[in-house]
Automatic annotation (TrEMBL):
Residue span(s) of domain KOW: 146-173
GO biological process terms on file: DNA-templated transcription elongation; DNA-templated transcription termination; regulation of DNA-templated transcription elongation; transcription antitermination
Gene that encodes the chain: nusG
Chain's role: Participates in transcription elongation, termination and antitermination.
Protein name: Transcription termination/antitermination protein NusG
Organism in which the protein naturally occurs: Anaerococcus nagyae
Keywords for the protein's UniProt record, in alphabetical order: Transcription, Transcription antitermination, Transcription regulation, Transcription termination
Record-stated family: Belongs to the NusG family.
């Protein structure tokens, strides 16, 4: 399998190709969006892992997230049901990024990638509706809230918004707490995410 770039071509010439390809469609000030990347069949997870490694190593700040959309289904075999997972779109990987010449070049030249999905393979961002339709799950931001058991917190979202809760349990890994809330004169234990609260 070969890439459309000649591996023996000088890097300077490759950079010119990238710049010419993107000059009509991207700008370094564009907001971060989701894009669809085409891969060789069977390479989806490998491509995802390579890009994930680049993100973890902070190789390029314009590459934010990557995922292979999947769904669960029930397989019945020999009268036994098994829940399995399959790819929603074999041969495709979703990448969240700000498309610049450099980030485009890095993704395009990742082993197993054949190109971006779009006219003439120029990156075209997914709309919010398409992101939801394609089953892309956004990573929740990791919050570092200074909260401990016994603290009072204001609830700022959800059905208990504007209530005050007393923290009884903190789970920083799951980014959540348990708290007692006074409902009709009775302390009721509820689960809240860090994004639902603010410290007092």
């Amino acid at each position: 399998m070969t890439d459309s770039f000649d591996k023996n071509e000088p890097l300077e010439e490759k950079a010119d190709v990238v710049e010419d390809t993107l000059e009509e469609t991207t700008d370094s000030s564009d907001k971060v969006k989701w894009y669809v990347v085409h891969t060789y069949t069977g390479y989806e997870n490998r491509v995802c892992d390579k890009i994930r490694s680049m993100i973890d190593n902070e190789q390029n700040p314009d590459i934010i997230d990557v995922t292979v959309p999947t769904e669960e289904y029930v397989e019945v075999k020999n009268d036994q049901k098994k829940v399995k997972t399959r790819k929603l779109f074999p041969g495709y990987v979703m990448v969240k990024m700000n498309v610049t010449n450099k980030s485009w070049y890095i993704i395009r030249n990742t082993q197993g990638v054949t190109g971006f999905v779009g006219p003439d393979r120029k990156p075209v961002p997914l709309t919010p509706d398409e992101v939801r339709k394609f089953g892309v799950k956004e990573k929740k931001p990791i919050l570092d809230i200074d909260v401990a058991v016994g603290d009072d917190v204001n609830i700022i979202a959800g059905p208990f918004k504007d209530f005050v809760g007393k923290v009884t349990e903190v789970d920083k890994e799951k980014q959540s707490i348990k708290a007692f809330v006074d409902i009709f004169g009775r302390d009721t234990s509820i689960d809240l995410e860090f994004t639902d609260i603010e410290t007092i």
